Amino acid sequence: MPKSDFIEETAKDSDGIVMKSATLKTQEVSDEDLKKINKYTLEPLTKDEVFTFKVVAGDNELDDRNYEPFNLNALKDLKNLYVGKTVIKDHRRTADNQVARIYDTELVTHAKITKANEPFTELVCKCYMVKTAKNDDLIKEIKAGIKKEVSTGARAKKAICSICGTDNTKTYCPHWGGREYDKEGGKVTCYFTLDGAKEAYELSLVAVPAQKRAGTRKNYGASEKLENTHCDDEEKLNKQKELDNLNNRIRLCDSFIFARKKIEEE
Description:
This protein has one domain (3-265). The protein is 22% helix and 36% strand. The protein has five helices and twelve strands. The strands form three sheets. Strands 2-3-6-5-4-11-7 form a seven-stranded mixed beta barrel. It has a two-stranded parallel sheet with strand order 8-12. It has a two-stranded antiparallel ribbon with strand order 9-10. The protein is elongated and about 60 Å long. Residues 1-14, 210-217, 224-232 and 248-266 have low confidence and may be disordered.
C-alpha cells in the first residue's frame, strides 16, 4: 500500500504527542492470530467470535506532509509499544468506549530505500474486536468502508531538525517544517525527524483523523527556551512561538470534538 493511501495529516498536542492518521483494512483470522488474541482474554475466543482488522500506522519515508517523518528507530520502538494497546472511538478515553485491542504488530520492509537512506518500512498494527450485538453495526460499517479513518498517537524520544540538528523535544530551534533555508550553498526544506518513541497511546476510530493545520507549528514538549541560531529578531520569534502554541491548543480542542466545520460557520 503506497503511503498516500493511508497517511493523511498530523497534529500535536501541548504535551508533545504526535498524532498521525491512518486507514484500516479488514483481514481474515488465522490460527496464529487467534492464539495471540487469546493472550489478552480471560476465556478463549473462537474464530467465529472475533472480527479483526489491521492499520498501517506509519512509515519512515521523508515525504510526510507535515514534515515530521518517523525514522526506523521510531518504528522499531512503536512496534513494541503498540502491542496490547486499546482501540477506542473519537479519542474519548473511557472504559465503555473501548471497542477493540491491538494484539500484534509487524514491520513490513519493501525493496526501496528512503531519502534518509533507510529501507522503506511500514508499521502494521493488527486489532481484534468481539462480535457482539453492540458491535454489530460498527463491524458492518467497517466492512462497508464507512468507518475506516483511524488516528494513531505517539510521543517521540527526539525530534531532530534537518537544518541545525537541534532536538526539539528539549529546546526549540527557530526553524519551521516545510520552510526552505540556506544550507551548504543551496535551499533546503526543513523537516523534523522523529527519532525513536517513548510511548504509544490508543488507536482511535474517528470521523476526522487529525486536525489539518493552517500553518506550520512545532510542539514536542520542549522547554520554553529557544536557541538563538542565526535568528535576526529573537523577541519577534518568541512572540510568534507563543502565538503558535496558543493556536495549537485551540485547534487541538477543535480536533478532538470534531466540530471544526461548525465553528468556522459560526
